[in-house]
Amino acid sequence: MIKPIAIQGIKGSFHHEVVQKYFNLDAEVVECMSFDSVVDSLLQGHSDTIVMALENSIAGSIIPNYALIDNHNLNIIGEYYLDIQHNLMALKEQTISEILEVHSHPMALLQCKVFFKDYPHIKLVEAKDTADVAKQIAEQNLKGIAAIASKGAAQLYNLEVLAESIQTIKHNETRFVVVKSENAEIDETRVNKVSLKFELDHKRGSLATILNVMSDCKLNLTKIQSLPKIETPWKYAFFVDATFEDYKDFDIAHSIMKIMAENFKVLGQYKNARL
């Protein structure tokens, strides 16, 4: 029996759109209102795969999600880059001048704030999920309230799009990762990207040294993110993504880095979605 895929949000959300594009249109989902709940769904066996947003081209990294993957020893088995287009939607036959409040996820509101400078009468209200607001507007027949969500949400909940692509920066991508509790067996010939986590001694040149190893082994650093260790003030863990052409190059780098770094961990080996 194929278990559903857990997502943050509900049907019509951007996470749902990723599931439809990465897997297939008919894939079942477990709807969760927080990333913690998404991970719980995986750990409790309600799903065996989850989809999580990890970074946005405008807002940057979603740092708590790095910690969730690390703390629960989860494994990234794939990734997907989604073009995020925010649309303003409401009940049919309404105009923007009739809208008094716009409810959406804080990230969506932040990415669209310039658009609303032309509509000072509209109050912006934070909500847990973009698509959930669209669903509530439809089910409760909420007049005077609009949502910021995907066109898929507008179609699913029969709302009218009042304005398309209202985000400030038109090229707006979010990187999502596909995660399992155990590492999937992927043919090494198809693996060309890795996600790593490690800690280093707080001394001069420690980070530069390990980055030089990656460079010498022909790994291309595509992402580095530091995260403070709460239990050890002023010590940091580093989360790194790197691509390569030959798996043997990563194998050599891996053997060296795990000796040099503390608590070295491979969070995932998978195919680079950028290729």
Summarize, please.
The protein has helices at 14-22, 35-43, 63-71, 106-111, 130-140, 151-156, 206-216, 247-260; strands at 5-8, 29-32, 49-56, 60-61, 75-83, 87-90, 101-104, 123-126, 145-149, 160-163, 173-180, 193-199, 220-228, 236-243, 262-270. It is α/β, with parallel strands linked by helices and 275 residues long. The chain has three domains: 5-84 and 172-180, D-Maltodextrin-Binding Protein, domain 2; 87-163, Periplasmic binding protein-like II (D-Maltodextrin-Binding Protein, domain 2, 3-Layer(aba) Sandwich); 193-270, ACT domain (Alpha-Beta Plaits).
| Proportion of residues in β-strands | 25-35%
Q: What's the level 1 CATH class of the largest domain? A: Alpha Beta
Amino-to-carboxy terminus distance: 32 Å
**CATH homologous superfamily descriptor of the largest domain:** Periplasmic binding protein-like II
Q: What is the CATH third-level topology name of the largest domain?
A: D-Maltodextrin-Binding Protein, domain 2
- One letter per element, helices H and strands E, the order comes to EHEHEEHEEEHEHEHEEEHEEHE
Quickly count the domains.
3
The gyration radius over C-alpha positions equals 21 Å
**Can you tell me the CATH architecture of the largest domain?**
3-Layer(aba) Sandwich
* Quaternary structure of the protein: single chain
Helical coverage, percent range: 25-40%
Number of helices: 8
List unreliable stretches of 5+ residues. Answer: none
